[in-house]
Queue: 3 jobs
Job 1
Amino acid sequence: MENHRIQIVPGCNPIISAAIENLQDRWRQYSNRSKSKPLAGLLEEIIDPALSEYAKKIPRNYLPYILGSGQDGPLSEIVRTKPVGAELAQRNLIREFENASSNPAFSNPAFVATLETLVELLWACSDKRARHTKVRGLNGQRRAQEFCRFCGKPSELAAYAAGSDSVDIYHKSTTLQLSSTHCHEHRVKLPTGKWNPAYKSASMSVAKFDLELDRLTRQSRNYETLSASSGDPLVDQYIYQYVHRFGFRPGDKAEMRNHARGIVDAKLSDHKKRVLVLQQQGLNQSNIATILNVSRQSISKSLASTPEKFLAISASSSHHPGFNDEFRTKIRDIEPSIMDWLDDPNITDIMLNPDGRLWLTRENRSKAELGTIIESSQAKLIIATFAAEAQISPDAGQTLECELPGLLRLVAWLTPIVESPTFAIRKMAQ
Ligand SMILES: [Zn+2]
């Protein structure tokens, strides 16, 4: 753990990233346990000043979302008093910020990237805690792993330390034998003393789990480009769509671990991923078989044995039947990705800010994400195309509202009310 590099999330503020680099150059000898080289002392020297400098550069109402900038005292103090769990507290603050900023005008990817980096920092700090910490009165010789080795649930001991006392789960007679490395489902032995079959099968597939988790993590870190580095462009494409479908960010460690587990347990092999991507591109089974150099029967078998929830990934970018071809072509000519977002059932809102940034909101994600940037001339064409489709004539100088029945509603603000045209599209549930 001493050599673990803290991940700087792309977009992180340079004051913070520089301080973290500096910290890592020096922190090898430091730990939460050491009296002569306390980790909190080093944080006080390097991270606290960087955070207060950063705090001066951001809006005041952002401050409550940064751990260590409020009433709890500086970050070093938080790590001193609460070496474990601080990263979860910061993670929750990010969620709160994302909820508070559901209005895309307040969305701030750089601020969130900085907060995500702080989560990484706090996580690394918790790894440097003393190895003999008392866990809620258990004189722990063992150090609880935050996550189960095989999934995104906390290890039994970590769940217990965090306050989960469920007697149903933690049989009273075995309370002192909580697993420090596995969750309840994946613990090595059952309370009866027998080997746990779920442990056995998960340990057989641990290499696959690590591989899928690495791919999801890499893609979440470089969200906008194909980044899974699987060695196969079709598999990379699948992972890209998967990560976008769920909107994973680097801080979503538990979720990605659970999804990696799900992919492995469902036996969604790379072969099946390729088939799904090709099918989504509109190829029929014979064509897919030719490309992958296998029989058509094996393609149909692959699809038949793929659980429904994974098939849905490929359905997400199929054409929405409600838009006619002429409309499609017009929108695609202006900006192709807009048609993709209109077709994607997971995207609920598309909004254009006056600065030309298009923001997207996905179902079940509070945070808007940046789609692309367009020119104001393109914005005008888009609005005009929607208006024509809804058979409304746009009067200059007015707001324009139109509805494509069953599909969406669009509200647009045109010049001169605003400096450059903006709009908000709310899609109707399919
Ligand atoms: Zn588990």
Note: Residues 148, 150-151, 153, 182-183, 185-186 surround zinc ion (CB under 6 Å).
Job 2
Amino acid sequence: MKIKHSLFALLLAAAPYAHVQAAAWDYAQPQHWGDLSPDFHLCKQGVNQSPIDIRQAVYARLPALALELQARQAAIVNNGHTVQVNLQQGDTLKLDDETFTLKQFHFHTPSENLIDGKRYPLEGHFVFSNQQQQLAVIGVMFVTGSANPVLGTLLDALPAQVDQSATLQEDVDITSLLPVDRHYFRFSGSLTTPPCSEGVRWLVMKQPVSASAAQLQAFSVALGAQGNSRPVQPLYGRLVVE
Ligand SMILES: [Zn+2]
């Protein structure tokens, strides 16, 4: 009994270490993410990496974006890599005859994708997943202009401390974080953070959404002077369609 008991205690003690921690990474040297861990090899060796400079898109008669959105409960966190909003699930995107469900959205400052070489002060990524856990991401660029009410709500609720989550008092409808004109570019890409997994269906809205200078500044402050934007990656023969 004694031996069994101590074995059990040992197992319990070891349990927290059984899960191998992912390598720590940051935005100081994103070009070296692939060297931090074998798990991150695609960051260095992948040929379908994001973000990209979107240019010379090929006309492909893309269908209208099939989004079903409504106001939902949400929580916001600055996880040290991004400001992220986790929503109650239910918003959907129909793409390629499959249903993708919105999991979360988050922000990059400045933008990660470029459009015709132009970098925007902020880019939102709306991350959807289908039943096979394949991802589709809608990217939205922000420009300086009138204040965005939803961004205001998010920034008001954002906890000052990293990794502290706050529930939003009002339900969040992402409709006002999307442009009215929903024309988009489409290309195949990856996560823009380690492990840089590929097979992500990227849809980047052509029209930007406005945010006030103060709102854009608030994201900059929250995400640090260095920002959280991976440099653009080579296309390697990929096509962007529109
Ligand atoms: Zn992102």
Note: Residues 1-18 have pLDDT under 50 and may be disordered.
Job 3
Amino acid sequence: MRIDFKPGNMLYPVPVVMVSCGDGERSDIVTVAWTGTICTNPPMVYISLRPSRYSYDIIKKSREFVINLTNEKLAKTADECGVKSGRDIDKWKVMKIEQLPSKVVAAPSVKESPVCIECKVENILELGSHHMFIAKVVAVNVDGKYMDEKNKFDLTKADMVVYNHGEYIGLSKVLGTFGYSVKKKKTRK
Ligand SMILES: Cc1cc2nc3c(=O)[nH]c(=O)nc-3n(C[C@H](O)[C@H](O)[C@H](O)COP(=O)(O)O)c2cc1C
């Protein structure tokens, strides 16, 4: 039996990221699940925010933000950044999140994050409940402890987390690598 749901957001799992921002006077971190990659070259991403978010005005004014990917260690902090507002508290201080100076943008990155993606806003689409910030990636910074002995970045070691219909899920099991479904098996001679 199949069950019909009313049209709504059912595209899961999605990333859950901590978006840091700053406009010189204010700085904040907002948790975002409506985010993704939209172009490889030039590298472009989006985040969608409700205009009521404290971070919304900061990003609209500064036209910059950093997407900080989350892992199992950061999951609780990410959740807390998603239920409390920068209007009421300084999330950096209260949640003891360490700032890492970003390379290109003025907004600080999250030091504990395995991957920090610095972005500059190119366009804002006012879609409805959420406004979509379309942005160019201007710098990427990763935690060196995830580089393997061949100097390859190994994200499988970072215990990444996804958001799946209201639940945070740790990605501990690798099922295959890109293209594994069509890869020919090596035949022994
Ligand atoms: C898992 C999760 C995902 C979220 N995704 C979004 C999102 O994509 N867009 C959005 O506007 N708010 C999202 N939120 C809600 C904001 O993070 C939340 O309202 C936050 O308190 C806003 O902080 P601010 O007022 O400091 O900007 C999400 C919250 C959680 C917990």
Note: The domain at 14-170 is CATH 2.30.110.10 (Pnp Oxidase; Chain A).
